[in-house]
Here is the input.
Amino acid sequence: MLKDYLKWTWLFLKSSNFYRGILLTVAVLIPLISFDIAGHLAYGISIAMGVFLNAPSNTPGTFKRKNISTLLSIGLTMLVTLIINYSKVHFIVLIAALLVVSFFVSLIAAYGFRGSLIAFAGLLAMTLALARDISEFGIWLHVVLIGVGGLWFLVMSWAFQWLSPKKDEDQLLSETLYLTGSYLQVRGKLLTKRTKREKLLGEILHLQTQLTEKHEALRELLLSERKKIGRSGFDEKRVLILITLVDILELALANTLNYNQIDDLFGDQHHLLPFRNLNLTMGNHLQVLSEILVRNKKVQSKDELLEAVEKAQNAIRDYLSEVPLPEGREGAIILRNLLDYQEQQIEKVRSIRRVMANVGKANKIALKKKDAHQFITTQEYSLNILLQNLSINSPICRHALRLTIAVGVGFLLGTLLGIRNPYWIVLTLIVLMRPSYGLTKSRAKERIIGTLIGAAVAVLIILVTNNTIVYQILAVISLTLAFSLIVQSYRSAAAFITLFIIFVYALINPNSFQVVQYRILDTAIGAGLAVIANYTLWPTWEFMNIDGFIKAMVKKNKAYLLAIQRLYHSKEITALEYKMPRKEAFLAISNLNAAFQRMTQDPKSKQKEMGLTYEIVTLNNTFLSALASLGSFIQNHKTTEPSIHFDAFIANIHNNLEETEALLDKEKKPELLDHVDMETAKKELQHTYNALVKERNEQVLAGVTVIDQEMKVLLQEAHLISNQLIWLKSLSEDLKKNTAKYKTVFNG
Here is the structure.
């Protein structure tokens, strides 16, 4: 336990998050100390505020995007600071300014993740403008110094990036390696943990969503830079690791198993244990590699992987010795397919090992710049985006209205009650409130717990000592850790933020306990208002929006299905023509899973038709897995010519998806494809497989017990194509039926 804790601590100290915390602390301390020595501490405080306000823009991304977002943040924080300070001339004017600024700044979140960070900086500037008295040197000088602080922070971030240019990439890759390892381990447990499958499947969905988000962040970070500066200035090893990690996830999804069939075939499960252990070994290997990437240690031995593969190979022979052919054929095919999949994963894990160990030519990659651009999800920044969100139907607009009213009520309430620092209530609101009720409630809980922990620790320290030097040191440490932990653990970050604030006030106010009381009270009021506002003011419950995610998923599944058909007909189609629909389908399922997870966080009374929605989400996940399995086999094996019966199944499945999409979109008219009779198509596909089985049985009777590679691939193809197409047809029919029921419930 202690060893794990020490390892976690060491990895945290090596992380880019801690590095970023140090950057913020250094950037804040230098102007404070310098101007204090010069006798102008007030100027240093304004510059430090500029640093603090614009720090959120320093998130992983390309050099250009980080600079642009920081400059926009600086401009916005200066403007907001100017408006609020001039509005202090009269209380009514100030309240009006708070409402206007809160609403329009919140709308900037319509421009995606970076837009939301810039909006947060603007709202934070509004709060700090309420807190700071600048009468001694004037509004304009303060605003200019805020801008100087932002520019100073930008220069400092350049210096830190020059000192460690690949810190963000390595941190993201390390996290993705670890999550991928966890994903493989959970999939291994699914083989044998019958009673825990529902819980494990929930973990799988959560990990898939996290991995897709990490992949998107890495695509922007790595591929955008490559597109801009070309091959010469680009670390191709990191891109190769990213591509391999994406392949591992997609290959895993392509080999989702029918666990009911496995349970029937392998009752006591002892034949499955080596395959489970192989997955656990691969997952552990990736997790160790994630640690090595950050700590720059030597790559571990591959012997454990090879031993696990050998045990899985022996398990197939042991199975056939217990259940000889032909009775054991179906089980043997499933185990061979499983081993084939795991061996492909082993090769991908080993390719990452080779890249990290600098073996041979492992760092060569042939991804063209124009192809790399296709894999980056871009954000549009036109004025039209903002105008589109000026509607009560927009979740962003609803959130802006909720936040605006909550800020106004919170500030008024704090002022009327005579609370010493009513701006703390406003600060709590802008930090906690999110468009989703569930996330707001969760953050409010974490904030309150963190504040109480931080306050309790601060009280104990203040009781023990009144030494101002100790307070100064602890304030610096708390600031660094708060900013370092805000992504990993919001509760811990809240605790350290509370410690920082209390120690700073303890340096200037001898009555520190009063500060603790006000801090807890203001946090409780702000958290309560945040939850109430999200519940009562134009709430955006997830059931109101989830059908849009379902429609997008059905549409992307349909595009992926047709790409697989084209691939089967002609292996000459470019990799991009196949991989782009696949990528978009995986992004769509990640968005759908995330929406469903948010739905589970809503109040029980707002989880409309939860069981039916879960069924539709599960069907879409299963459908995508079956598609990926079909596509992966066709892409990686030499296959026979597709028949009209294959095309009949594709057309029938396509038509089911078209009709499902039409149920979700009243304006859509289904475009149905013609095809031969489905019963005939099914019989012909099964006849092809049965003929191969008969031929193989005759070989066994003739004494040919070792199957040749050509026959093995033909059997695999016939078995997989017929089974997957029948399964996809059934899934598409179930999806259409459940979607029709879903729309009937909500329209009726």
User: Anything to note?
Assistant: The radius of gyration is 29 Å. Residues 104 and 400 are 8 Å apart (CA to CA). The chain has 28 helices and no strands. The longest helix spans residues 709-747.
